[in-house]
Amino acid sequence: MNAVAIDFEQFVQINHSEPVTTSEFVAKAFGKKHCNVLAKIEEICTQVPDSFGERNFALLEKERKNNLGFFVKNKIYELTKDGFILLVMGFTGKNAMSIKIAYINAFNAIAEKLRQIQAKQYIATSNQNSKPDGRYPTLNKRQQYLIRQAVLDNVAETANTFHSVYKKLYTRFNVYRYQDILAKDFDEAIELLGGVVNPIDNLPVLPNINQNGRWLLVVRNNQIAEVKSLKGYICLNTGAINKLII
């Protein structure tokens, strides 16, 4: 099959804000029987962690009419870019390498189109809810840190992967990066991750006093008890704490 004659972007679709292809498209592109592609995918799924298989090879059913006029269901797999690369890694034959490259280029092209669409949607949303100067604030540094911590907690306490947790954020708030979530949506984002906004999280952030040091904020009963320098453990009294908080 001549790779140049194929429009590979037709073989890549968007599902849940992620470029994907199907086992049928892969079979067509490489000139293979679909049943053989299915067998290879199922072999791979027995060799990789369940989390990887579930994330990159989604089992679907497709209804079609057979030669007798009856509707039957056939299984197909939906593949992410990572799943596709793992599947075709061992494919050989005439034009196999050029087909792989063309397919990967199609994945990248669709991903870029998706990024541009999301950027336009973000700008449109920002304009609708903007301040008089045309800007609407996104998460500040403290909120970004808390989002990352909530993601870590979510992954540690559940069977979720980092990919799936961040994907949930991107889909819910229609953003390409978690940093682009609007500040007004911070509480909702934390709740989506299964966390709770603790009152202490809303305290002002200490300035970076020592560029070469790190500071430990000790909290008891939602009140700052003391501040320690991790380098030397120098304690600050409550009067100094009040002056440092900004």
Describe the structure.
There is one protein chain. The protein is an alpha+beta fold. The protein has nine helices and seven strands; from the N terminus they run E-E-H-H-H-E-E-H-H-H-H-H-E-E-E-H. It has helices at residues 23-30, 34-45, 50-56, 81-88, 96-128, 141-157, 162-173, 186-192, 238-244, and strands at residues 13-15, 18-22, 57-65, 71-79, 215-220, 223-229, 235-236. The strands form two sheets. Strands 1-2-4-3 form a four-stranded antiparallel sheet. A three-stranded antiparallel sheet has the order 5-6-7. The radius of gyration is 25 Å and the shape is elongated.
Please report the distance between the alpha carbons of the first and last residues: 66 Å
What structural class results from the helix and strand content? alpha+beta
> Which segments are poorly predicted (pLDDT under 50) over 5 or more consecutive residues?
199-212, 231-235
What share of the residues does DSSP label as strand, in percent?
15-25%
Rg, Å, rounded: 25 Å
Element order: H for helix, E for strand:
EEHHHEEHHHHHEEEH
Number of helices: 9
Helix share of residues? Answer: 40-55%
Number of strands: 7
* Strand arrangement across the biggest beta sheet: 1-2-4-3
> Shape, please?
elongated
- Biggest sheet descriptor: 4 strands, antiparallel
Mean pLDDT: 78
Keywords:
246 residues; alpha+beta; four-stranded antiparallel sheet; three-stranded antiparallel sheet; 9 helices; elongated
Topology:
Blueprint: E1 13-15, E2 18-22, H1 23-30, H2 34-45, H3 50-56, E3 57-65, E4 71-79, H4 81-88, H5 96-128, H6 141-157, H7 162-173, H8 186-192, E5 215-220, E6 223-229, E7 235-236, H9 238-244
Antiparallel strand pairs: 1-2, 2-4, 3-4, 5-6, 6-7
Helix pairs in contact: 1-2
